[in-house]
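Entry for NAP complex. Fields follow.
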Amino acid sequence: MNRATRVLVTGAAGQVGVDFVDVLEGVIPPGGDRSFQPDKRSVPGGEFEVLALTRHELDVADPDAVRRAVQAARPDVIVHLAAYTAVDRAETEESTCFAVNAAGTESMSRAAKESGAHLIAISTDYVFDGNKGGAYVEDDVTNPLNVYGASKRAGELLCSSDDTVVRTSWVMGVRGKNVAHVIAERALSGQSVRFVNDQTGTVTVASDLARVLATMVRERPGGLWHVANTGTTTWFDVARYIGEILGRDDDFATAIATADLEPAPLATRPIRSDLSIDRFTSRWSATPGWRDGITRLIRDRGSRGGVR
Ligand SMILES: NC(=O)c1ccc[n+]([C@@H]2O[C@H](COP(=O)([O-])OP(=O)(O)OC[C@H]3O[C@@H](n4cnc5c(N)ncnc54)[C@H](OP(=O)(O)O)[C@@H]3O)[C@@H](O)[C@H]2O)c1
């Protein structure tokens, strides 16, 4: 019998991390789609041996700790999900943000190479400035508008050419703090919401990304990949759709312009940063549509655990 693939996961308590660990252990995370697995092979429990590290167990900004953790774990694959993700706070905490997202990713890449493991690192649509006027493909020129985006781009550049880098966007998990939960709470408590309709992007439901990452652990493709749910949207459309699922009328969500946000966010966001997933779908299958993903997320909102 083949031995289990050893997978070291950083940031394992984050919203992608908890779903990814479930998937690797053969569990369907809350909000998960039983039928979606890009390589069309289900993930049985026992295929992977998971070494899940939270921030308390490994500070990725500490290069010595990273080297020691990787040497001790002897992984076949490292999936590096740990990141400084507070986009607005990053504007005033630049050095911390870069220590985690840039230097931390460099340490992971080095440690992976030294131990013969394959690294899969996660990046963001915020590496782009949004001025292209269409969906971004992997080879498009980057030009981050904010500190977080710049730190993630620096992390990409500090990876080795053997590593896999997955750019994703607008991530929402059942067990994460994210906009979908804020919208749902307002919808259920009879309040209304105002959301921008001039920022276009691609939603990524964490459990669907987790399934993609499990396939990538199997196949170790290397290079840059864009991954999101299928279909482009705006925050206003996301809010309106969640309101619709929860039985609210058209007056639940009001569309506003980014320029009218008060107070203005500290970090500038790209106006149009949707990711083209054509490269991904030409190798594997299409990801579920964003409405389908959000429907599952809202359906399972109250759930903390997955099912086998
Ligand atoms: N969320 C999005 O919309 C989005 C969009 C594009 C790309 N991404 C990328 O997707 C990946 C997963 O993000 P996510 O949504 O799961 O974010 P998340 O929920 O914020 O999870 C990130 C995890 O990293 C941990 N972490 C922070 N600093 C660390 C450090 N120095 N050492 C070790 N762990 C540390 C965090 O711990 P604490 O909670 O204790 O700080 C958290 O558990 C990240 O690479 C992120 O940049 C996210």
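NOTE: The chain has a mean pLDDT of 95.
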